[in-house]
Amino acid sequence: MPNVFFISDHHFGHGPIIDYESRPFDSIEHMTETMVDRWNAVVGKADRVFHLGDFSFLNKAGTAAIVARLHGYKTLILGNHDRGRSRTWWLEAGFDEVSEFPLVYGGFYMLSHEPMYLNKHMPYVNIHGHIHGQKYDSPQYVNVSVEHWDYTPVAFETIHGLFRQDEEG
């Protein structure tokens, strides 16, 4: 059975993000190669990856070249920096599926680019990106921005395990 992974906010081709988020890279090329290598180190060709937005600032050819190198069946949920381009643009760049709206995974996990409003009585967890190095102080939110996971897609089992620990503890 394929594994499922989540990740967001790669910002491929966006040089200023290195300084904005204090990323440990000395160039765009170094950032790109490291993030592609870390993706492929954990994601197999048959695995599924939900990218929760802000994938690339490159043109279609540059974006497609990166997408083609990444393992797995790739679903993109559009982020604020992705929305200037159509769903068709992203599909032509190599994503297998593209959603303009949040998705529900496993009946319990709400996948979105930006954190969604959840009150403490809602029985859901929001897996999101957008806020990069920041983090909400609530067990209902899991930030999968690359800065929180060493620039590596995080396995669903890891996220689900966070909630099993809460139930057992």
From TrEMBL:
Domain of life: Bacteria
InterPro entries: Metallo-depent_PP-like (IPR029052)
Gene3D superfamilies according to UniProt: 3.60.21.10
Name of protein: Phosphoesterase
Species, as recorded: Gordoniibacillus kamchatkensis
Upper taxonomic lineage: Bacteria, Bacillati, Bacillota, Bacilli, Bacillales
